[in-house]
Amino acid sequence: MRVACIDGDGIGPELVGSAREVLAAAADADGISIEFVDEPGGARTFTETGAPLAEGALERFRTTYDAVLKGPVGLPEVRHPDGTEAGVLGGVLRNGLDTYANVRPVRLLPGVRETGSPINYVIVRENTEGLYLSRGSGVRNDHAASDQLLMTRVGVERIVRFAFELARKRSGAPKDGVQRVTCVDKSNVLRSFAFFRAIFDEIAVQYPDVEADHRYTDAAAHDLVADPAHFDVLVTENFVGDMLSDLGAATVGGLGMCPSGNIGGTAAYFEPVHGSAPSLAGTGRANPTSQIRSAAMLLEHVGATAAARRIEAAVESAYAGGAVRVRPDGTPECGTEGVTEAVISRL
Ligand code: NAD
Ligand code: IPM
Ligand code: MN
């Protein structure tokens, strides 16, 4: 397999290094050998070359590699004159590759914290439109600024379908085992979200075996903390999904636990939910579990299911047995290397 790696900024290189070791060991155990190819990307790349991604990289991601593993990118000090960050790759990769589904599983591993109820749901975040379509085209002057949110029928239909198909493949919400998709929207106030909900309801009828559920965005934020065991799959707009996925991370041991996939019809890439955590860079304290589990999602996506499961099981056993403990601030007691070793020794 040829896997492209964007090691990214801040804690990115440490995390991608860790995930590469785990990926290689897990694949090797199944007779798969992996060739890793470095592709530069992010804030450092922007500072050095004037562009956040190398020439031709998008085309290579689509055609040359079997899979792409991405570290977190971006540095708050590397900005465009309009005030937005120059080193983030969200628009370049998600729109450039049309990876319309941002799949963000939130699962509490045994041993991480006592909650009294299981947490195991997936946020399906629309990844190519919504408020983020305004990226680069918002208006700003000294007195006012505006960005426009756009939802299209094609865009909403495909993300809602993706969510229902995913719910069919999953075993159901942890509390009652019901396969359920929750539409998270602000249709009580905004027309765009009323449009999103109407299309959700149209498509839900085509999946009578999956329960269609609704939450307004504010109530969803409350219930994801107060009653997380209710949720199975959630589907929502881009910006709302961005916020809820960090909120979910806080309930399962922090951002360093949470992986994600950016999935489209012809391309996909896998990365942690979090950013480059500049204050942790170089300290060896960041939790690489997010990046390691992103590697497992990558393997699952390319059909290397046994190797993917091997990684998930090793991660779970490392936490369940107490070999890895996360502090309240989300850093593991045994450090980045300790987590990597604990996982590899259990593959
Ligand atoms: P962040 O996600 O980097 O950090 C938020 C908090 O989580 C910090 O306290 C950080 O220390 C902690 N944290 C993050 N990852 C961790 C890990 N693996 N282990 C332990 N703790 C961890 O968010 P931020 O500080 O707002 O952003 C930093 C930079 O990252 C910005 O440039 C931002 O634009 C960028 N960013 C990139 C991505 C991405 O590449 N997908 C995602 C989010 C933010
Ligand atoms: C994420 C990040 C990105 C987003 C940023 C860095 C562009 O926060 O992947 O969640 O807002 O989508
Ligand atoms: Mn985010």
UniProtKB/TrEMBL annotation:
Pfam family, one: Iso_dh
Cofactor: Mg(2+); Mn(2+)
Keyword terms, alphabetized: Manganese, Metal-binding, NAD, Oxidoreductase
Domain Isopropylmalate dehydrogenase-like: 2-343
Gene3D superfamilies, alphabetized: Isopropylmalate Dehydrogenase
Name listed for the protein in its UniProt record: Isocitrate/isopropylmalate family dehydrogenase
Organism encoding this protein: Saccharopolyspora oryzae
